[in-house]
Amino acid sequence: MSLLSVKNLVACLRNGANIVDDISFEIAAGETFALLGESGCGKSMTALSLMRLLPDGVVHAGGEARMDGARLFDLPEREMREVRGGKMAMIFQEPGLSLNPVMTVGGQIAEVLALHRGLREDAASERCIELLDQVGIPDASRRLDEYPFQLSGGMKQRVMIAMALAGKPKLLIADEPTTALDVTIQAQVLQLLRDTQSQTGMATLLITHDLGVVAENAHRVGVMYAGQIVEQASREQLFGKPLHPYTQKLFAALPSAERTGQALCAISGSVPPLGSITQGCRFAPRCDKAWALCHEQTPEWTVVAEGQGVRCHLYGRAEDRGLMTELPSPLASLPQAGEGNSVLNPQSSALLQVKDLQVHFPIRKGILKRVVGRVKAVDGISLAIAQGRTLALVGESGCGKTTLGKALLQLIVPTAGSVRFEGNELIATKAARASMQMVFQDPYASLNPKMRVAEILEEGMSALKIGDSSVSRQAHIDALLDKVGLARDSKWRYPHEFSGGQRQRIAIARALAVSPQLLICDEPTSALDVSVQAQILNLLKSLQQELGLSYLFITHNLAVVEYLAHEVCVMYLGRIVERGTTEEVVGTPKHPYTQALLSAVPRIDGMGREYIKLEGDMPSPVNPPQGCHFAPRCSHAMKICAVYPEARRCSKTHLVSCHLYPDT
Amino acid sequence: MSFMPVILWSDALVFLLIAVTGVAVWYVRRHEHLLLPWRRVTHNSLAMVSLLVLSLFLLVGLLDTLHFRSVLPQSNGGEKVYSPEVLSVFDKLVDPLRTHTEKTYSAPFALTLYARETRTDAQGNVLREFPRLQYGGAHLEDVSRRDADVVVRALIGAGLGLFVGLLSFYLTHRKLHCASGCDRAVSVVTMILTTLIGAIISLAAVYHVLGTDKVGQDVLYLSLKSIRTGLIIGTVTTLVTLPLALFLGVAAGYFRGWVDDAIQYIYTVLSSIPSVLLIAAAVLMMQVTIDTHPEWFATTASRADLRLVFLCLILGVTSWTGLCRLLRGETLKLREMEYIQAAQSFGVSGLRILTRHIMPNVMHIVLISLVMDFSALVLAEAVLSYVGVGVDPTMISFGTMINGARLEMGREPMVWWALASAFGFMLVLVLAANLFADAVRDAFDPRLNRTEVGV
């Protein structure tokens, strides 16, 4: 008996384009159903139409949803309010934005309790404390009177979950609940969701774009593409044998260590705009198995096995398939890049040498702006990058990795230390502007919306006086666009006409315009969808091979690190705690923090290592713990950890700052 | 030559403003992305209607800006002598309105004065009666036929106006083959306006349509003349505000540090001084200077004009702080954008980042707040002139009209028409400007546009 059953749900824009198109699924009590898909495929709209909270301009256009026998779309608004929060609760992506900043945590939970459970005063606050305890917030009775800004991101998401649980809902809708969180916090929240589910037996509709999260938490999965569910299966079936070409491609596009030598299998193009494809399969333009029928006829829902269905002509009835005669084995036909390992030989002299770099931000107070403290964002970092190599800088948000990148470029003036590029000191000079460039995280914020692509690309050249005439510059721009895989005529267009992936290509072309030797990539793929991420990673890799570029790759995504990097530095609270080659650090992590970080990453093969739970959050860099910064959260902490450990050598290239290993 | 062109200070500033607008239009027309929001404005019928009304006001104001002194019949030893009176092209066009002055108040469409006069008739009887006006309705022998005459003249004028409107509609539509909903609204409003103007022209030739004021001047004429003063206050002031607000605001936001501190202190101090006091002090000081140097001015008009320009200046100096604060905030947000950092990492100079990256991205705010400020400034002039620190008393403006009419509001029977017409004209002008500003803001709002693109 299913708790929620959705049949042929359709939601459309006022002009008739369907955002959610003919979606059907069922969720049983105690089950987690995951909706998986890239941005803009209609996952959130599905959830919002179930809650009947669709934004202006989007209307429910058909289909029905039954919950406990009640037809959700026929309920009057008064009764629907009872359902929201009472039977169905929702948590959102950005915990910082979904809590009211001027209400205490207790007040916000009590509001739900008063509405749905009729609890007031003491009874309510008692129940609040129980709920906060349940979601694992330490010292719950004190937290009750705190405001959201006093809590960290992970704590806020826990409060959101507590609020959702307050009405004792039968169904929890979690819309990307961990996307804004760090991996270690993500692991905590996912664990919490699993635990609450097993305790209360509620059903969960989990909306996510992350295959890893699906692998960890979901029982059944619906893969969405352009407003439709293209495949539905149990987790085991989906991860064992994905049927739809789109699902197969999604798996193939994931970067990982095994694929290091090869190009990733990227899906060409991007998700089609809503309503642009009315006939045929929506994935057909990007599908390499598409044939004439796919463009002409919309594929029907086909049940392939018990609990597994797919919307693809490949699995349709034989007489419908027309020209296609045999069912291709989906996984075997993935194109393999034959290149193999072709990493450039590391050169002995380092291109960039950083020594004891410090970036401290003074905290000023009072009328006279006296310095009362320092935020030690980067606290004595040394690293070296050789020509043609990739160094990955890994760490959670707030550990100072972006600040380090900007300090290297002299965008932020370092407090102390030295940065040498090809032996020349950079600090307090602008000598090497051309040889080092940066690719930023958000391709939507990194291009000036009022400038055309040609102007964007030309800016660096004119500022650094590269290329003497405008003709030679234009020729250079054409060459750059070819190199990053964009059409030449796109240089007269404005950034808003491009998709996220294309914008990131423009940003890369802009950095390359001044022929740098080192690119600092600050999370260049974290704002992109998986399939587009693969395109950009491939591009970066081929540029490295072609031009002999070095990369400083700043990221929190360990899968990308395994795929792209030669060496890894793990940062914690402004300092590097472990460094070494990728195989060493990812294969045999030594530092407890690295171990915890790696164990927190959800694995799609389901063979997650034993999860090492980290207590609490990262301390503030204003006031780092005495001695080893990680000691307060470390399960191996000893007395000696009160002294900051020197770096110890585990092998020729592998260094770790931890007392667990013998001093050399 | 029978006249000598005169360019007053405010005229020069208006011409400068027209030149700047011309350059801006030329620049926008060459850039598709700048043109796009304006296209959106043209699709909004309310915006186009208010633009039509605004452009009528602008036309009157511009005609009133072309000044000259006509030559006098007598000559000074072969040398031409020019009249000390500075007239404008507009004055010449509506000459009867300007010259047909009565003795004192008369109501709209009245045939007689508003006050009784003592008169001795042929028999030697002393009579107290309302004397007939010298010009208003002077062609009528029979007083009782006035209403019929008014209706007939109004109809004739309206008919002619409608004909002109239809003719222009026919001519323009043969060229532009478009018939959107917006077009229809604009055409209808054009017809209504031409009809109305036709009727008023036909009536104004023989009647005082809006009555006369204390010294017998036609109130319609005064109201039309006030338009130029209002427009100058509204637009020339922005010439002063804009560079101050734009450069200081953007510089404060971008450079931070002591530049930011200094600019913030300046505008915080400036905005804490009561602006009316500051304006009063400055205007009175200037008045003293003008009075002690009569040799500086060839005509009374140039004296009044200098005071107007100075008023614009002082209004500009006190009113740039709001926009400056707004731009500083926006720049603070923009400077953290990654494209600014990308430019910095190329070593692009600060000034270039300001002009190429930041200014184009705050232009929509500038545009919106300027159009919004315009209406506030027109109203500010009226208030200041009413208080007595506004324009020169000899200059015709909405403020002086209101100031002149305020005492008569208490009189019985009330003299209401001067105040009512100043009120009506100002309302239409400011309402049109506000509606247009609203439409412009909507067209430039990226949030609204995104839904439009999505649909």
Radius of gyration of chain A: 26 Å
Span between termini of chain A: 64 Å
Q: List segments of chain A where confidence is low: pLDDT < 50 over at least 5 consecutive residues.
A: 322-348
Overall strand count of chain B: 6
Helix content of chain A: 25-40%
What structural category characterises the helix and strand content of chain B? alpha+beta
Question: Mind summarizing the main beta sheet of chain A?
Answer: 8 strands, mixed
Number of helices of chain B: 17
Going by helix content, strand content and strand pairing, the class of chain A is alpha/beta
Shape descriptor of chain A: globular
**For the residues shown, what is the average pLDDT of chain B?**
84
Question: How would you spell out the order of helices and strands of chain B?
Answer: EHHHEEEHHEEHHHHHHHHHHHH
Query: Please, how many helices of chain A?
Result: 20
Please give the number of β-strands of chain A: 24
Q: Based on the structure, what is the oligomeric state of the protein chains?
A: heterodimer
Question: In this structure, how is the largest beta sheet of chain B organized?
Answer: 4 strands, antiparallel
Brief synopsis:
Chain A has 664 residues and is an alpha/beta fold. Among the domains of chain A are: 96-167, no CATH class; 443-515, no CATH class. The radius of gyration of chain A is 26 Å and the shape is globular.
Tell me what the structure shows:
The complex is a heterodimer of chains A (664) and B (455). Among the domains of chain A are: 96-167, no CATH class; 443-515, no CATH class. Chain A has 20 helices and 24 strands. Chain A has an eight-stranded mixed beta sheet with strand order 6-7-8-3-9-10-12-11, sandwiched between helices. Chain A has an eight-stranded mixed beta sheet with strand order 18-19-20-15-21-22-24-23, sandwiched between helices. A four-stranded antiparallel beta sheet of chain A has the order 2-1-4-5. In chain A, strand 11 and strand 12 form a beta hairpin. Chain A is globular and about 75 Å long. Chain B has 455 residues and is α+β, with helices and mostly antiparallel strands. Helix content of chain B is 69%, strand content 6%. In chain B, strand 2 (67-76) and strand 3 (79-82) form a beta hairpin. Mean pLDDT of chain B is 84; it is low at 450-455.
